[in-house]
Amino acid sequence: MAGPGRKLVLDLLGQVRFHVPYLFFFSGEGVKEDSSGQHKAADDMRRKCGRQRSWLVWRWMLPINCLEISGFSLKSLVQVLECLRDDRDIERIANIGGLMPVPQARFTELLADIEPSATTKSRASGGHSGIREHLRTQEQFKNRYVSSFLSGSYARSTSIRPRTSADGQERPDVDIIIVTNFSTSDHPDDVLNEVCRALEDGGEGYEVERINKRSVRVETWQADMDIVPVVQTWNGYMIPDRDNGTWKFTNPPVHTSWSAEQNERFGGRFKPLVKLFKWWRRINPSGRRPKGFVLEKLVSLHAPISQTHYGEAFAQLLKNIYDAYGYLAAMDQKPFIADPADQSNDILGKVTLAQWKDFVEKVRVYADIARRAQVAEDMEEATRQWRRVFGDRFKATANVAKAAAYGGFATAAPVAAGYTFPNAMAAPANKPRGFA
């Protein structure tokens, strides 16, 4: 077997984790022994595959009991071997037993590519550390400063690589919470103006870009940062809102711990799915909102928990979102989605009905495209459809070494590059009694 067929089988094997607790030993003469006792299943495969095929005469040992692919079974392996035997429909092997047309490695490679780089993370760290130390020690503000911490996607490890700015740089967005001893009786305008003055420090500090509704914006060569002053309460924090002159309840640490809990619930796949969802939104925008934490909440509510293949999980995520909200959007309605930090707060509060309807329609369109990618019988067509979903960064050929280096996913790792079928007999060094 050579050419595209060989490459496809290697891609298939790239989705397999070989624990090898036991092996089936194949030969042209049939199965002599297997340590699991499943003689009947193995012998059935031998009969299906024929006795005189040269690749079986190799006595190739294959660990087949631990194929960690949804729906893959001994019966499915029989179908694979039948295709190999007849040298036909080789492109369809990846669909047997629920296998996905595009290997997991292509999605983990994309995840590695859209992850903020080490340089970006280092710059972000330097940027927020400098701001926090400046406010902690600034002469007119140090008596206001109590403590500080990070919030937002950077703190939750759900951020993706930043957009490239006009000057060609990739600067991350970082949210910095400054716990102060202000009082909720202080006017939000006064609080934010005092933070602004402390940052500028009479021209010796930072250049403030603007004062936002609830934060002060500073943009440096390292990062774009929103500095948010808060007042701590017994159950969270109060944040100033200069638009209406009031203080509002918030609790960013709950969002951070909630995100970590979801990632554990999903077996380590929650945050990677969030990143894929965010990347899809960037490639296929429908407006400014929904974004950020709203997307994380949607993944938590509607992504399949046990599905380990990111392509299938993402296709199901989009379909589930549309199934849940499509009928409401058609009736010009938005759902209420509770904030984990405050069950009375609707996290869709800032999303207009028009924005929500555009988003739901975009989900509908791309749910269909993702499903087409999953059921495609041709690898090239499946890849083409996924590139419509995720853009040109979704590679036509997986870079196994790069994908394997990405540590943010919990599933079977691809086989090492360079794996080849043996050209000679393979057998145990110390064969059990009964082996040929």
Highlighted features:
single chain, 436 residues, alpha+beta, Beta Polymerase, domain 2, Poly(a)-polymerase, middle domain, 3 domains, seven-stranded mixed β-sheet, two-stranded antiparallel sheet, 15 helices, 11 strands, 12% strand
* Mean pLDDT over the residues: 78
* Strand element count: 11
Rg estimate, integer Å: 27 Å
Largest sheet: 7 strands, mixed
Total number of helices? 15
Proportion of β residues? 5-15%
Order of helices and strands: HEHHEHHHEHEHEEEEEHHHHEEHHH
Unreliably modeled segments: 13-39, 48-75, 88-99, 397-405, 407-429, 431-436
Overall 3D geometry? Answer: globular
Content-based structural category:
alpha+beta
Structurally, how many domains make up the residues? 3
Briefly note the CATH topology name of the largest domain. Answer: Poly(a)-polymerase, middle domain
Gap between N and C termini, in Å?
A: 25 Å
Task: Give the C-level CATH assignment of the largest domain.
Answer: Mainly Alpha
List the SSEs and their pairings.
Elements: H1 3-13, E1 24-25, H2 39-49, H3 54-57, E2 61-62, H4 74-86, H5 104-114, H6 118-137, E3 145-151, H7 152-156, E4 173-180, H8 188-200, E5 208-211, E6 216-219, E7 224-232, E8 237-241, E9 246-250, H9 252-265, H10 270-283, H11 293-302, H12 310-330, E10 338-339, E11 342-346, H13 353-375, H14 379-390, H15 400-405
Parallel strand pairs: 4-7
Antiparallel strand pairs: 1-2, 3-4, 5-6, 6-7, 7-8, 8-9, 10-11
Helix pairs in contact: 2-4, 10-11, 12-13, 13-14
